[in-house]
Write a structure and sequence with these properties.
By secondary structure, this protein is α/β, with parallel strands linked by helices. The chain contains six helices and four strands, in the order E-H-E-H-H-H-H-H-E-E. The protein has a four-stranded parallel β-sheet, covered by helices on one side. Strand 1, helix 1 and strand 2 form a beta-alpha-beta unit. The chain starts with a strand and ends with a strand. The mean pLDDT is 95.
Length: 167
């Protein structure tokens, strides 16, 4: 395998398995979820800054009692939705950190939006969620360095895919 494309990258389980197993010349990932692709880009390009924010969230969230955690979670979910609606390049690290925080603390790691496109998953019941997995984020950052990323419909992959591409 020298060339790999993943038109619906989602959580990236297959992507990271492939990246760990093969020396690839070209890799292209795509997803229609802009917040998800922003998180991949931030992990790739700004891992240190991302880890600083995630560490802060972890230090604030873990010591809280259940009711305080629910309030904290709700405030982060609200902020995430604000940034989804009014995204700017200056908020990309915060948006990625919020997405990871919500994923690690929500019910079953779900990503679900309502008809307005706003994230609406409730908080999960985890005693000690690992919000800032610094080793994993650093490893993912290294693996993503040569990965081309795109947000949009899967059909954007067509120009990348040829007879030598595993899809």
């Amino acid at each position: 395998i020298k060339k790999y494309a993943e038109p619906f990258v989602g959580g990236g389980a297959v992507l990271f398995d492939i990246l760990n197993r093969y020396e690839l010349e070209q890799v292209y990932i795509n997803d229609i979820n802009g917040e998800l692709m922003n998180a991949y880009r931030v992990v790739k390009n700004d891992a240190h800054e991302l880890l600083d924010v995630l560490y802060k969230y972890q230090e604030e969230f873990i010591p809280l009692d259940h009711d305080s955690r629910k309030e904290y979670f709700a405030s982060k979910r609200e902020r995430f939705n604000e940034l989804k609606v009014q995204f700017s390049a200056g908020s990309r690290i915060e948006l990625a950190a919020l997405m990871i925080f919500l994923n690690k603390t929500c019910f079953n790691g779900l990503y679900r939006v309502n008809k307005k496109g706003l994230y609406n998953v409730p908080m999960g019941k985890y005693k000690n969620p690992l919000i800032c997995d610094s080793e994993n984020i650093r490893e993912c950052s290294q693996l993503l360095q040569n990965v081309q990323m795109h947000v949009g419909d899967y059909s954007y992959c067509r120009d990348f895919i040829d007879e030598n591409t595993i899809v």
